[in-house]
Write a structure and sequence with these properties.
heterodimer, A: about 475 residues, alpha+beta, Peroxisomal Thiolase, Chain A, domain 1, OB fold (Dihydrolipoamide Acetyltransferase, E2P), 2 domains, 9-stranded mixed β-sheet, 5-stranded antiparallel β-sheet, 22 strands, B: about 400 residues, alpha/beta, 14 helices, about 20% strand, globular
C-alpha cells in the first residue's frame, strides 16, 4: 500500500486585526479577549487561498501539482469554479484536476481526505488542498468577535513527506446547529447548550473514540491533539473529557489571537502543528460539522529539512490593528460608505480572458533577441524593437524595490482613501511594475522599500470580481 | 523631415471665459469661442472650408464633431474630430495648419471645447488609461505624483525642498492668473498656503494640481500668402513637433520618471523647424503644460529652458516670471484657467497669439516686444506631447 501524507504546507493570516475590545465597546458588552484577524478590503477567500497555496509551495514543484481542491463556505462565486481561478493564480499547469469543496466547516478536512485517497489510488501524484474562509457573525453576536479570516494549504503526496497519513475515521450526523441559508449574510445558530453539548462535544468525542478504537490507540499515544473549536471554553471541556494534557498535548486553537477561520481552521491548526513538530510525533486532527472527521499523522525526519515557508507564527506576529469598528463593517460590506468617483474602466470577460496569463498568472515576456524582461507581455520589444521574439516567463515570485510612489488621495475607496500607487523594479532584470501597494502603512513607504507581489481583488465591475497583483512590503520570515 | 515654417498663419482667435460655466453647455462654449474668432479674423462663417474639432470627454458630450456641427451650422463642410488626451487642442490646430499648407483648403478653423463640469465629479476620474486591470485605479494626480517623488530622489532634494520649489511655480502662475480676466482662478497665493493645502497625491497638494473647468477656444487659419488680406498682424506658424511615445510608461523598463522622450522629441522638432538654436534665449514667451507643478518643472528641463537637474535654480531666481528672462504661463496657465482638456491647447495658443500681436487684454501683463512664442500640451499617462512655435514676422 502506498504511503501518503503531507509533503508541503503553509498557512495564511491577513495582516489586519481587530481588537475584540473595540467591538465589545461599541456594543456595550463583554469582550471575549484578544484579537481577530480581518481580511483586508482587497482580500476574499480566493485571494487568501492563493496566498496560502503560494506560501505552501514556496516556489517549489509547481509543475508537479496534479490537482487542486479548494474548501470554503464563503466562495466569491456561487456558480463558477473557484479552484480553477486559484490554480491559475498559483500558476499551476493546466492539465490538472480542480474541484471546490463547500458548504461546511468540514470542507477542509473532507478535501484533504479526498486528496489522500486520490494519491493513494494512484490517480494523482500531488494534490494541493487549499482552504480559506471569511465568515461573518451577526453584529453584537459572540461569533462576530470569535470568527477570524484565514487560509491554509497542504500538499497531499506520496513523496518527501513531512508527515505520513496514518488513518482516519469519520461520522456523519444531521442536525440544525450552525447554518446559513443562501440569502443569509450572517451565520445562524440554535441554542448554545444544544450545539456545543450535543453537537460539538459529543461528536468530537465519538469520532476520536472511533479512531482510537479502529487503530488501538490511547490519548497518551498522541503528541498533539488538534481540535478546532467554537470557543476557548468548549475547547477546554473537550480536551478534559477526552483525557489529554492541556499543557503538553494540545495544539493552540488559535482562537484568542486569530479567531475561528471556518473551513480553513482545521488545516491552519494542522499547519502550525507540523511547523512546531519533531520527528516521530503523532498528530491527531479532529474536526466537527454535521458529523466529524478524525485523522492521524506521524511526523517524519523530513521535518528537520530547511523550509522556505512563512510560518503561522510569523503571520501572527506581523500585523496592523484596524483603527475602528466602522472600518471593519465597511470592509465586510455591511455598511455602505459614501461613494468615491466612479470607476471609469469596465472590465470585459473577453479582454480579461485574453490577458489571463498576465493578469492572473503574472507572466511577462523575455525577449529572445536581447533578453529584456517586461511585464505585461510586449509583442514588440521596448529595448531592441524586434517583433514577436519572446518567451513567456513567470514573474510572480520576484522580489523588488520601490522606484517611485505616490500617496493618491483621489484613487481609493472612501473608507480606505489613500492608494499607494507604486512603481517598482523586480528581480535582477529590473522588471518594471506599476500597481497598488497593500497591507502597508502609507507613511512608511519610501523609494527603495523592498516589496513582493500578492494576488488581490482589485475592483467590482459588470458583475465580476476582478483580481490582479499588488505590491506589499516584504516582511520577516518566509518566501512571500 | 519637411517644414511648413511661414507657410500658414493664424488670422483670428477666440477664447471663452474659463471656469464653472454652469449655465453654458458645450454648444454655447463653442459659439462663444468661434464667433469671437470669426470677428477677430473679420470673416464670415461661410468662408470656413473645414473644421478640426477637439474634445475628449465624448461619453458626456457626444461623439464625432457633433458639438461643432450642431452649434455652429457650418454647412456641410468636413468636421474632423481629434482626440489625443490633453494634446487634443494643439493637434487639431496643427492638423488644420497642415491641411492649409497642403493646398487642400484656404481658410479653416480649429476649435477645442470641453464641458468638464457636466460630469458630476471634481476630478477627471479614477481608472484612466487603456486597461481596466493593469491601470486599475490610476488618476491624473497619481501619475504625476510618481514623477515628483522620483525627481526629488534623483536630484537629492528633500521632500520639503522639492515641495517648496514646486510651490514657487504655483505662486508665479497664480500671480499671472490674477491679472487675466478670462482665467478661472484669479487669487494670489503664498508658498506657505501651497504647502499647507490638503494632500492630493503626495507629494502633490491641492495647489500643485490644476483645476477642472469648462472652456473653449478657436483659431482661424489661412495661408501665409493670403493672411495679409485679412489683417495687418497675422501670426505665423514657425515650427511644430508632435511626439507620441509608447503609452505604458508605468511598465516600461528603466523609465526614469524624471524626463520624457515625447517632451524632448516634440520640442526639438519644433525648434528645428523654427530655426531655434537656444530656446532659453530666443523664445520670448512660453505657455507650457502645467497640469501639475511638477510637469512645468520637468518641461523646463526637457525643453532646454534650464539645464538638467537645475530648473530649481531658475525657479528661485524668478527666470520664468513675467519680468524674467523667459516668462512662462503668463496668463496663469492650466493652474489658473483649469484644464478643459480638448480646449487647453487652443487656449494657450490664444495667449501666445495675443501677446505676439501686443494685444494682451490688460496692458500690465503685455510682454514687451515679443517675437517668438511657444505653446505646448502634454497628455496621456503622460506620453504624448505637441508643441507649436508662433512668430509675428516672416523669415
Amino acid at each position: 500500500m502506498t504511503t501518503v501524507g503531507i509533503s508541503l504546507c503553509g498557512g495564511y493570516i491577513p495582516y489586519l486585526r481587530l481588537d475584540r475590545g473595540v467591538i465589545a465597546q461599541i456594543w456595550e458588552r463583554h469582550s471575549i479577549g484578544g484579537e481577530r484577524s480581518v481580511a483586508n478590503n482587497d482580500e476574499d477567500s480566493i485571494t487568501m487561498a492563493v496566498e496560502a497555496s503560494r506560501n505552501c509551495l514556496a516556489g517549489q514543484g509547481v509543475e508537479e501539482v496534479d490537482g487542486l481542491f479548494f474548501a470554503t463556505t464563503t466562495a466569491p462565486y456561487k456558480e463558477k469554479m473557484n479552484a480553477s481561478l486559484i490554480a491559475t493564480a498559483v500558476d499551476l499547469k493546466r492539465e490538472i484536476t480542480t474541484a471546490d469543496f463547500a458548504h461546511s466547516l468540514r470542507a477542509g478536512t473532507g478535501a484533504l481526505k479526498a486528496a489522500f485517497d486520490a494519491v493513494k489510488s494512484g490517480s494523482m501524484g500531488n494534490v494541493l488542498v487549499a482552504a480559506s474562509d471569511c465568515r461573518i457573525g451577526y453584529p453584537r453576536s459572540d461569533q462576530e468577535q470569535a470568527f477570524g479570516d484565514g487560509a491554509a494549504a497542504v500538499m497531499a503526496s506520496s513523496k518527501n513527506l513531512l508527515a505520513t497519513f496514518e488513518g482516519s475515521y469519520s461520522i456523519c450526523n444531521e442536525m440544525m446547529d450552525v447554518w446559513r441559508n443562501p440569502e443569509d449574510t450572517f451565520v445562524r445558530t440554535w441554542e448554545g447548550r444544544f450545539i456545543l453539548g450535543e453537537g460539538y462535544i459529543n461528536h468530537m468525542k465519538e469520532v476520536v473514540s472511533g479512531l482510537f478504537g479502529k487503530y488501538g490507540l490511547e490519548p497518551k499515544d498522541i503528541s498533539k491533539a488538534i481540535f478546532p473549536a467554537p470557543d476557548v471554553r468548549t475547547h477546554g471541556n473537550l480536551v478534559k473529557q477526552l483525557g489529554f494534557q492541556m499543557e503538553t498535548q494540545v495544539q493552540n486553537p488559535l482562537l484568542s489571537i486569530v479567531g475561528h477561520c471556518g473551513s480553513a481552521h482545521a488545516l491552519l491548526m494542522l499547519v502550525e502543528a507540523i511547523e512546531e513538530a519533531s520527528p516521530g510525533d503523532m498528530l491527531l486532527l479532529a474536526n466537527y460539522a454535521d458529523g466529524a472527521d478524525a485523522m492521524l499523522f506521524r511526523v517524519t525526519e523530513a521535518i528537520k529539512r530547511e523550509r522556505n515557508q512563512r510560518s503561522v507564527k510569523d503571520y501572527i506576529e506581523e500585523k496592523s490593528l484596524l483603527a475602528s469598528y466602522a472600518r471593519f463593517l465597511s470592509y465586510k460590506g455591511l455598511v455602505e460608505t459614501v461613494p468615491g468617483e466612479p470607476f471609469r474602466l469596465m472590465p470585459s470577460a473577453t479582454a480579461s480572458w485574453r490577458d489571463r496569463r498576465g493578469i492572473l498568472r503574472f507572466h511577462g515576456s523575455k525577449c529572445t533577441e536581447c533578453g529584456k524582461v517586461t511585464f505585461p507581455v510586449q509583442r514588440v520589444c521596448y529595448h531592441c524593437d524586434s517583433k514577436d521574439t519572446f518567451e513567456e516567463v513567470p514573474l510572480s515570485h520576484m522580489k523588488g524595490e520601490v522606484f517611485t510612489f505616490t500617496l493618491d488621495n483621489l484613487a481609493g475607496r472612501s473608507d480606505d482613501p489613500v492608494v499607494v500607487q507604486t512603481i517598482a523594479d523586480f528581480g535582477e532584470e529590473k522588471v518594471r511594475f506599476y500597481g497598488m501597494m497593500t497591507d502597508c502603512d502609507p507613511s512608511e513607504v519610501e523609494v527603495g522599500t523592498p516589496v513582493s507581489l500578492t494576488f488581490r481583488r482589485i475592483y467590482e465591475g459588470v458583475g465580476m470580481h476582478n483580481y490582479f497583483w499588488k505590491c506589499r512590503p516584504v516582511r520577516r520570515g518566509g518566501n512571500t | 523631415m519637411g517644414s511648413i515654417k511661414d507657410e500658414v498663419a493664424i488670422i483670428g482667435m477666440g477664447c471663452t471665459k474659463f471656469g464653472e460655466r454652469w449655465d453654458m453647455g458645450a454648444e454655447d462654449l463653442a459659439i462663444e469661442a468661434a464667433y469671437e474668432a470669426f470677428e477677430d479674423a473679420g470673416i464670415e462663417k461661410k468662408e470656413i472650408e473645414a473644421c478640426w474639432f477637439s474634445t475628449v470627454m465624448s461619453s458626456v458630450i457626444g461623439v464625432s464633431g457633433t458639438v461643432a456641427m450642431d452649434s455652429l451650422k457650418l454647412g456641410n463642410i468636413p468636421v474632423i474630430r481629434n482626440e489625443n488626451w490633453c494634446a487634443s487642442g494643439h493637434i487639431a490646430l496643427l492638423e488644420a495648419c497642415m491641411a492649409v499648407a497642403s493646398g487642400a483648403y484656404d481658410v479653416v478653423m480649429a476649435l477645442g471645447v470641453e464641458k468638464l463640469k457636466d460630469t458630476g465629479f471634481p476630478g477627471l476620474g479614477t481608472g484612466r488609461g487603456m486597461h481596466p486591470v493593469y491601470e486599475a485605479r490610476r488618476t491624473s494626480p497619481g501619475s504625476f505624483g510618481l514623477i515628483a517623488q522620483r525627481y526629488f530622489k534623483t536630484y537629492g532634494l528633500s521632500v520639503e525642498e522639492g515641495r517648496e520649489t514646486l510651490a514657487k511655480i504655483e505662486v508665479k502662475n497664480h500671480d499671472n492668473g490674477s491679472l487675466c480676466p478670462k482665467a478661472h482662478f484669479r487669487n494670489k497665493i503664498t508658498v506657505e498656503k501651497v504647502l499647507k493645502a490638503p494632500v492630493i497625491a503626495w507629494p502633490l497638494g491641492l495647489f500643485d494640481c490644476c483645476g477642472n473647468s469648462d472652456g473653449a477656444a478657436c483659431a482661424i487659419i489661412t495661408t501665409a500668402e493670403k493672411a495679409g488680406s485679412f489683417r495687418q498682424d497675422p501670426i505665423f506658424l514657425k515650427g511644430f513637433g508632435i511626439s507620441a511615445d509608447a503609452m505604458m510608461p508605468h511598465f516600461r523598463p528603466e523609465f526614469s520618471w524624471t524626463s520624457f522622450e515625447a517632451l524632448k522629441t516634440s520640442s526639438r522638432k519644433a525648434y528645428e523647424m523654427a530655426g531655434i538654436k537656444n530656446p532659453r534665449e530666443e523664445l520670448d514667451v512660453a505657455e507650457v503644460h502645467d497640469c501639475f507643478s511638477i510637469t512645468e518643472l520637468l518641461i523646463y528641463e526637457d525643453f532646454g529652458f534650464s539645464p538638467r537637474g537645475k530648473a530649481r535654480e531658475d525657479v528661485d531666481s524668478g527666470f520664468f516670471t513675467r519680468e524674467g528672462g523667459l516668462p512662462v504661463n503668463i496668463d496663469g496657465g492650466l493652474k489658473c484657467f483649469g484644464h478643459p482638456i480638448g480646449a487647453s491647447g487652443l487656449r494657450m495658443t490664444y495667449e501666445v497669439y495675443k501677446q505676439l500681436q501686443g494685444k494682451a487684454d490688460l496692458p500690465e501683463r503685455q510682454i514687451k516686444d515679443p517675437r517668438l512664442g511657444l505653446a505646448h500640451t502634454f497628455g496621456g499617462p503622460p506620453q504624448i506631447s505637441a508643441v507649436a512655435i508662433l512668430g509675428n514676422e516672416m523669415g
